[in-house]
Amino acid sequence: MGHSFVPFWALGALNMSNNEEIQNTEEQQAEATEERVDSTESFEEKVESLSAELEAALKEAETQKDVAIRAKAETENIRRRAEREVSNASKFALERFAKEILAVVDSLEKALELPSEGDTANPMREGIELTYKLLIDILAKFSVEQITPLGDSFDPEKHEAMIMQESDEHDANSVMHVVQSGFSLNGRLIRPARVIVAKGKAPEIDEKA
After folding, report:
1. Which of 17, 122, 170, 208 lies in disulfide reach of 198, CB 3.0 to 4.6 Å?
2. Mean pLDDT, residues 120-141
3. How do the domains of the chain map onto residue ranges?
4. pTM of the model as a whole
5. Out of 3.40.640.10, 3.20.20.60, 2.30.22.10, 3.40.50.720, which CATH number does the structure's domain 146-202 have?
6. Which of 81-90, 105-114, 125-134, 155-164 is the least confident region?
7. CA 150 to CA 178: how far, in whole Å?
8. Beta strand 193-199 pairing with 159-166
């Protein structure tokens, strides 16, 4: 069996071809590696960019949340302040009206303190009593309460002492007479009751001692 003869120049060409293929393969592998590196770097950049955008969005959301909370709190404060001002205005207007009406109450009380004379005075007195009671009831409907502390201990928060008198019939520091009724509006004093307060009798001095 004979051997085929390959010319020398053919071997050289074959080696050159193989070398070119190897070089091309290495270049292709290098390019592929560079593409993978570029792709990896591009992906990381995108992740960093998205993370930054997410963080910025979270900060903005937190800021808007704080703004919304403050706005809600401010709105609530305004609502409460408006309600308080309306309530105070209503109470102040009612207080002024009540104080004006108290002059009528005082006049009726003074009329009832007058002694009755004759039969003709009785119907008139009854009319005054009914009018007085009706007026007191109407005031009570609007939370205007009468203060008549006869027999109670003197309270400087609600009573105004006109004078103090010695008395054997009343406890010391108790109200023995109401000169003028007091009144309160919604639990707040608008006029103290003017009273005479009892005090203990001074000890007697034995002149013979």
Report:
1. 170
2. 88
3. 146-202
4. 0.55
5. 2.30.22.10
6. 81-90
7. 6
8. parallel
Report which of 183, 164, 182 is spatially closest to residue 173, judged by C-alpha positions: 164
Distances (CA, A) of 116 to 20, 104, 131, 177, 206: 143, 20, 17, 21, 45
Amino acid letter, 143: S
* Residue 164 neighbours by CB under 8 Å, 6+ apart: 196, 197, 198, 199
User: What confidence tens digit (pLDDT) does each residue in 27-81 have?
Assistant: 666 565 665 555 565 777 787 888 888 888 888 888 888 888 888 888 888 888 8
H or E element that contains 131: helix 121-141
Q: Are 203 and 176 in contact (CB under 8 A)?
A: no
Residue with tokens 């205007």: 144
- Sign of the dihedral defined by the CA atoms of residues 108, 110, 111, 116, in that order: positive
